[in-house]
Amino acid sequence: MRSVILALLFLLWLPACSVETDRSLYTAGEDALARLHNGSPIPAWLPGCAPFELQRSLDGDWVDQGPPWVCIWEGLAVLVAPGSTLTTPFQAPADSGLYRLRYPVSLGCSPGLPLSQADCVREQSVFTDPFEVEREACEADEPGCRFVPLAPNFLCADGESVGGPSGVCTRDPGSGQCGYEFLECP
User: What are the residue boundaries of the structural domains of the chain, listed by start?
Assistant: First the structure.
């Protein structure tokens, strides 16, 4: 009976849970924030180690990029109480593109346990609106930008995407050095 009641509440709860990022455009590697709001009358639960996964838009499909960090253990489920908001910091990806965050939100879980052991009634994905990541442009005369890559682009294994030099000189968010961004195959 408990699972039937929780399943019915879940159907009512779904539209009440939302997540948003603090902006729609980031520079690669920039610090960012996401806020998950539980507007429902029942608790919501998130994975303990990494509460979200990054997804990238490639050729019109959303492709999982994984969690923002490596988890050795799944951790205890994180409670998002009814009417509360959980703020999660993240770092914008290093590569230019269109991204979003996916939060796997669970309902009807036993507290104090990892999600895999919490006997949750249901899991539902909640997504941010897409956000764009751009690498910071460099001036043409900066070191690393003084030559134009001559290597040709190549067709990726999917038969649609193109890999190789983008022809745009940008600043690497990790090192701060300027150079030509290389497009990777999906």
Answer: 2-134, 136-186
For residues 127 and 100, the answer to whether their CB atoms sit within 8 Å is yes
Say if domain 2-134 classifies as CATH 2.60.40.1930.
Answer: yes
Two tokens, residue 128: 């941010």
- 106-127 pLDDT, tens per residue? 988 999 988 889 898 888 899 9
Q: CA 99, CA 91: separation in Å to the nearest integer?
A: 12
Q: Tell me how far apart the 2 most distant CA atoms of the chain are, in Å.
A: 70
The first and second tokens of residue 45, run together, are 């639960």
Across the chain, the runs of DSSP E, i.e. the strands, are 17-21, 25-27, 31-38, 44-46, 53-58, 61-66, 78-80, 85-91, 97-107, 122-127, 131-134, 154-155, 162-171, 178-183
pLDDT confidence bin for 57, thresholds 50/70/90: very high
| Mean pLDDT along residues 127-147 | 84
Residue type, 164: G
